[in-house]
UniProtKB/TrEMBL annotation, chain A:
Protein name from the UniProt record: Amino acid ABC transporter permease
InterPro entries: AA_ABC_transptr_permease_3TM, ArtM/GltK/GlnP/TcyL/YhdX-like, MetI-like, MetI-like_sf
Membrane topology, as annotated: Multi-pass membrane protein
Subcellular localization, as worded in the UniProt entry: Cell inner membrane; Cell membrane
Main localization category: membrane
Source organism: Azospirillum oleiclasticum
A Pfam family annotated for this UniProt entry: BPD_transp_1
Keywords: Cell membrane, Membrane, Transmembrane, Transmembrane helix, Transport
UniProt key word Transmembrane: yes
Membrane-traversing stretches: 31-52, 101-119, 131-151, 163-188, 208-229, 273-292, 337-357
The family this protein is said to belong to: Belongs to the binding-protein-dependent transport system permease family. HisMQ subfamily.
From TrEMBL, chain B:
Protein name, UniProt field: ABC transporter permease subunit
UniProt family annotation: Belongs to the binding-protein-dependent transport system permease family. HisMQ subfamily.
Location of this chain's protein in the cell: Cell inner membrane; Cell membrane
Primary site of residence: membrane
Record-annotated membrane-spanning stretches: 21-41, 92-114, 126-146, 181-202, 214-240, 260-283, 332-351, 363-382
Coiled-coil stretches noted in the UniProt entry, renumbered to this chain: none
Topology relative to the membrane: Multi-pass membrane protein
Keywords: Amino-acid transport, Cell membrane, Membrane, Transmembrane, Transmembrane helix, Transport
Length: 373, 391
């Protein structure tokens, strides 16, 4: 915070000098800047040295199975052995051990499908979009066969034994896939000005759900769904979580879609009417394609926060990735090393969320550029 | 459709339009009512089968649950309603702490992220990416595990000899005031009011004469002098008791439990990253021409920031930050995963205790809706005060 106006650096005369000038402007432009740089450097060095010492130099990478004595030795750093020993439980929880290649393969199929859907070409070219749909149908069938089994010589695995990463990914993908059409309908309903009853029902639903925490929705699914349904009809815990999560996600997605609907000029609607299209055909063929395309970047951001929100299902005891991590350290031998275990869980979440947010940023840049359309 | 009313549009619309609208809405209502009735009938028969009564009568019956941390006096045996109030106060405590600290940290980080200083901008950028790409649930469990992994009270980490960090939580010096805090607080309040009035007076004088009288020495004198007078009249000083290690735990200090510390830390670290991005975006959205105009008027960097850029950036920052405040409030309900007795945790225990799930979940939703609406109203009021006055 200097009082003088800093003029732009003079053009560099040679490469070496240019780098020096840039370094000076970036790190040592004033007394305050130099002090800041030195302080940040000292802080980073101290933290980095401690981290390197704890996480690498003094870390315990492996121990004899079921024995954490090495980690408890005085002077021992991070106990990565807990992650090494429990990584299969963290990723697949109680899925039968010999069959765990199946959820692993299912996760890969799901991730590949999601990545393939991320390419812009797959939703702007009709042929590519058609192949993508075929891919999703084939992929989902494969995943169902892999996870449940019971056919093709694969032993049947019931839903109660699913857990870990596949549950997190399936909850996120299916939750969003169910919530998205609901969200579009809610957004359309909220904008239906000549249907006041439907409009106020939609507004009420969206605002109510956005005003309460997801935890209370999950409680509702966990405690109230069994009360609401006829006695004798029981619903699996995973399905209950999925119902609550989809209801929750649809309200948030509806608000994003509404933003897109608002940005489509009224003339588009009138033009569609003039062509003789009815409400549904005008909406599906003219309005929605324009509206949705405009909100793709905020949609991806909402997907990211919904993906993170799937981890809340642990409050009703669904074995997602986080709950599997939590259960892995219930073992008294490893109880003291929860920090290392949760670091591993955060690393997995970080990889997924960070790739999605990087992708979203690239999309935004692409949409800002008119030639990118 | 107000824009189309000028056109004779209704003439060429299909004639059955209105009838169809009524039909659709009637159908929607009928489906909703039918579904609701079906659920209600199921629920009634289920409740009867399980012998669960309905109504809020259970709130007056004694609660059997113990609550570890309370802001108001509570003991098992008090009414359930009292337990709910304890939980609600804990939720409010965490929410207020979280909002204040996350706003401070987020603003500092957001401004630092824009610094011309490359190392500072990169370090804060790294923090933002790391904090916001990990779910808040994982944050909470991570911080809680870290706090539980701290040494026992006997070998607590000393923070300058006055505060101690151990697996029992954070122990701070206890501050007490013989004779109560009221006179001192009143003096501070009066001084702040007078200082604010002086500031308004100076602003009016500046508008009238173009010259601003020097105010801050007077304001500082008031803010220091009045409380000092109050202390002198009362004849007592605030007492500070340093925590002392007695046996296996500390005595004499104020202890903040690991649960509250972890919950606050997690919420602050996570939401500060989002607030920082909002602050950064808001400042970047103010056009560079505004900076240049400020320079042309002869203002220095600090004044440009305070008088020109921030008032304009706030228009973008306030609505987005309000959203984050609401998210933070709702996320405070995750206290249940680390066992801090907030509203949700307490009510969850009451559900297992009494079985009155419908009423209890309704209570949670109503409480959070009320808190959310209050925050929205407060922030909307603030926003309308900060709004750009257009010609």
């Amino acid at each position: 915070m200097t009082k003088t106006l800093v003029l732009p650096a003079p053009p560099p005369t040679s490469l070496g000098q240019g780098m020096l000038v840039r370094l000076r402007a970036a790190c040592f432009d004033s007394a305050a800047g130099t002090v800041t740089t030195v302080m940040v450097a000292v802080l980073v060095a101290a933290l980095g040295a401690w981290l390197a010492d704890w996480a690498v130099l003094r870390a315990v990478w492996s121990t004899p199975p079921g024995d954490a004595a090495l980690c408890r030795a005085p002077g021992a750093g991070a106990c990565w052995a807990v992650v090494a020993e429990k990584h299969r439980f963290l990723l697949f929880a109680t899925y039968p051990y010999e069959e765990q290649w199946r959820p692993a393969l299912a996760c890969i199929v799901l991730v590949v499908l999601c990545v393939a859907s991320g390419f812009r070409r797959s939703w702007t070219r009709w042929l590519a979009a058609r192949w993508l749909m075929v891919g999703w149908l084939a992929g989902l069938t494969t995943i169902a066969v892999l996870m449940w089994g019971g056919v093709l010589g694969l032993p049947h695995v019931s839903q109660e034994r699913w857990g870990g990463l596949p549950v997190t990914l399936l909850l996120a993908v299916f939750g969003i896939a169910i919530a998205f059409p609901l969200g579009v309908l809610l957004a359309l309903g909220r904008r239906a000005e000549d249907l006041p009853v439907i409009r106020w029902l939609c507004v009420g639903y969206i605002e109510l759900i956005r005003g309460v925490p997801l935890v209370s929705m999950l409680f509702m699914a966990s405690f109230l769904l069994p009360l609401f349904l006829p006695s004798g009809l029981t619903v699996d815990k995973l399905v209950r979580a999925l119902v609550a999560f989809s209801m929750y996600a649809s309200a948030y997605l509806a608000e994003v879609v509404r933003g897109g609907l608002q940005s489509v000029p009224r003339g588009q609607h009138e033009a569609a009417m003039a062509l003789g299209l009815g409400y549904w055909r005008a909406t599906v063929l003219v309005i929605l394609p324009q509206a949705l395309r405009r909100v793709i970047p905020p949609l991806v951001n909402t997907f990211i926060s919904l993906f993170k929100d799937t981890s809340l299902v642990l409050v009703i005891g669904v074995f997602d990735l986080l709950n599997a991590g939590k259960a892995a350290i219930v073992d008294p031998v490893w109880q003291a090393f929860g920090f290392e275990m949760f670091l591993a869980v955060s690393a997995i979440f970080f990889v997924f969320c960070w790739s999605m947010s990087t992708y979203s940023r690239r999309l935004e840049d692409g949409f800002g550029n008119p030639r990118g359309r | 459709m107000s824009g189309t009313q000028a056109l004779p549009s209704h003439r060429w619309r299909p004639s059955g339009r209105k009838a169809r609208a009524i039909l659709w809405q009637g159908l929607a209502l009928a489906v909703l009512a039918g579904g609701g009735a079906w659920l209600a009938i199921n629920t009634m028969s289920n409740l009867e089968e399980r012998r669960i009564g309905s109504g809020f009568g259970f709130l007056e019956r004694p609660a059997s649950i113990p609550i570890a941390e309370t802001l108001i006096a509570y003991a098992p045996g008090d009414a359930n309603l009292h337990a709910v109030a304890v939980g609600l106060l804990n939720t409010l405590l965490v929410t207020v702490l979280g909002i204040v600290l996350a706003t401070v940290l987020g603003t500092v980080v957001g401004v630092a992220r824009l610094s011309r200083n490359w190392p500072l901008a990169r370090v804060t950028g790294l923090y933002i990416e790391l904090a916001r790409n990990v779910p808040i649930t994982v944050h909470l469990l991570l911080w809680y595990a870290l706090l539980q992994g701290l040494p026992a009270a006997r070998s607590a980490i000393s923070l300058g000899g006055t505060a101690f960090l151990s697996n029992r939580g954070l122990v701070l010096p206890a501050v007490g005031m013989p004779g109560g805090w009221l006179p001192l607080l009143a003096a501070v309040g009066v001084a702040a009011g007078l200082a604010f009035a002086l500031h308004r007076l100076a602003a009016r004088r500046q508008r009238w004469s173009g010259r601003r009288p020097l105010v801050w020495p007077w304001a500082a004198g008031l803010l220091l002098g009045l409380p000092a007078c109050a202390l002198a009249v009362q004849g007592a000083w605030p007492t500070v008791t340093l925590p002392q290690l007695k046996g296996f735990n500390f005595a004499g200090g104020t202890t903040i439990s690991p649960e509250l510390t972890a919950l606050t830390l997690g919420l602050v670290v996570y939401f500060a990253a989002f607030i920082a991005e909002i602050v950064r975006g808001g400042i970047l959205a103010v056009s560079p021409g505004q900076w240049e105009a400020g320079v042309a008027l002869g203002l220095d960097r600090r004044r440009i920031l305070r008088l020109v850029v921030i008032p304009q950036a706030l228009r973008l920052i306030i609505p987005a930050t309000t959203n984050q405040y609401l998210n933070l409030t709702k996320s405070s309900s995750l206290a249940i995963i680390i066992g801090y007795p907030d509203l949700v945790t307490v009510i969850n225990s009451i559900i297992t205790d009494t079985g009155q799930a419908i009423e209890c979940i309704g209570l949670i939703m109503a409480a959070f809706l009320a808190v959310s609406v209050s925050i929205s109203l407060l922030m909307n009021w603030f926003n309308s005060r900060m709004k750009l006055v257009e010609r």
